[in-house]
Amino acid sequence: MITINTIKINFRGGIISPGDLYNILVAAGKIGIVQVRFGLRQQLLIEADEPGIRQLAAELDLLGIPYENNLDDYPNVVSSYPAEEVFITNTWLSEGVYKDIFDLMDYRPRLKINVSDSNQSFTPLLTGNINWVASPSSQHFWHLFIRFPKTNVIYEWKELVYTNDVARMSRQVESIIFQHPDMFIDNPEVNGEFLYALAKEDTYITKPVEQPLKLPVFNLPYYEGLNRYNDKYWLGIYRRDELFAVNFLKEVCLLCLQTKIGQLCSSPWKTIMIKGIEEKDKQLWTSLLARYQVNVRHAANELNFQVEDNSSDGLALKKYLVNYLSKDDMRTFGICIGIKTRRKTEVFSSILVRRRPLFRIGSLELLHVYDILCAKDFNPNERTGFVFSKGNLKLVLKEQLHRAILSFYSHQLKQIETPVVKPKKEISKAKKKEYLHQCKHCLSIYDPLTGEPDNNIAAGTSFDDLPSTYNCSLCEASKEDFQKIEKSALELIAENTG
Fold first, then answer.
1. DSSP string covering 225-289, please?
2. CB 306 within 8 A of CB 269
3. CA neighbor of 438 nearest in space, from 481, 491, 471
4. DSSP state, 182?
5. What digits encode the pLDDT tens for the residues 272-283?
6. DSSP 374
7. pLDDT below 70 — which residues of the chain?
């Protein structure tokens, strides 16, 4: 039996150097690899048999390219950089800021790190363990969400962290978590405040979080095709079977170098994106797509799916469901449908189709059934949700998915319906107390607003400023015979005797 291994190469933040990718593809071609994949966490995945993998590993070592063979000890740093300028505008988070953060990460993270703009949903915000989300209101400051390893527990950091400290704090938080695995890993009772206290022992530039970050509503843009933005074009390439021909990708790299495009991107949708295509070079890219017969106009209800990496069963199930959705021309706009067929995998989704066996004998699985789970408010960035239906046979799975999709749109309609506005009760504001002085003999009032012009006392003269020789203008009682009384009490007396 031939054992197939998988080499995984991380592209930090999804940014790929055309020169590096070309060299990797040449090395893969030497062992007869004709197709490669891209992964959910913006990596390159290369499958080969044992002898081929050994030769490829040796080539990658010569190139100085870090990789893992059948391991996931160093999950990639995921970022929303591929969407920058294309799907994200009016933000302080620029290309330079992303790259500054990545340059400061002078280590290989062992925890999943996400670096995302808050003004987008193209890339997931909270699928990492250390999740940085750019503050929408404070430039160069970041919200931090910790999702503790092997749990769904999320802790929102109490402070915003400055851009230049993102990499250093990520390293410190990771170090603390691995130093105390019993406290922070696979512990549903984990205490985020304790992690916060330990991390505070170091000094960072921070500011208090004034209010919790509101996660954006999920809205998946159409992420393929040759599209105009500003005065340039971007090209998104999706493959239905997730397989990219090595020869095609090599020509993509060479065309990038020829047209002075210094990078291409891998997205969390297992696609590649080329940004910064000049008008004069547009025809070169169109010709390349035509030469390799690469289709870039798939139906939206196909692009809305997320499937585990290297999952032939997941792809087969996706195809089965996409055919049903396409046949009935079913709307899936705004929904991310995830496919999960293996344990210990994670898929970004609004609606998750999860396959599980009724019986398991060692590694053998028997009689599969399907559960449909929905994220809270159908927002895939939320970590909790509910089971929509459970234990479905494949025969009824399509109809159950249809019902879940209708439930999403029903929820969406409820969110946009005009709420009934109840009239607000007027709340009288407490008035500042005002005082006058009254003669206790004849009940005459001294009012500082008017003073006593006949006695040469100007308006605005307070009772305390009156001379000690002041006498009541009516009965000539002394100043000491006046008592302080609240003005509102005098008004009430007047109303009752009027």
1. EEEEETTEEEEEE--TTS-EEHHHHHHHHHHHHHTT---EEE-TTS-EEEEEE-GGGHHHHHHHH
2. yes
3. 481
4. H
5. 999 999 999 999
6. E
7. 1, 383, 417-433, 442, 474-475, 488-498
C-alpha–C-alpha distance, residues 451 and 444, integer Å: 13
The domain covering 4-75+221-291 belongs, at the CATH homologous superfamily level, to: Sulfite Reductase Hemoprotein;Domain 2 (3.90.480.10)
The residue with tokens 């998915």 is: 401
Where are the CATH 3.90.480.10 domain residues in the chain?
4-75+221-291
Phi, psi of 330 (to 5 degrees): -80, 135
pLDDT of residue 489: 54
Output the six-digit token pair for 458. 């100007």
Global pTM?
A: 0.81
Burial zone of 51 (CB within 10 Å; 0-12 exposed, 13-18 middle, 19+ buried): exposed
- Dist CA 277 CA 236 (whole Å): 12
CA angle centred on 56, ends 55 and 61, rounded to 5°: 100
What is the rounded CA–CA span in Å between residue 463 and residue 470? 10
Q: What SS3 string covers 134-199?
A: ECCCCCCEEEEEEECCCCCCEEECCEEEEHHHHHHHHHHHHHHHHHCHHHHCCCCCCCHHHHHHHH
Strands 225-229 and 232-237: antiparallel
Instruction: Tabulate helix, strand, coil % of the chain (nearest 5).
Output: 35, 25, 40
Residue 466 has which token pair?
């009156």
What lies within 8 Å, CB to CB, of 214 at 6+ separation is: none
CATH class belonging to 435-497 = mainly beta
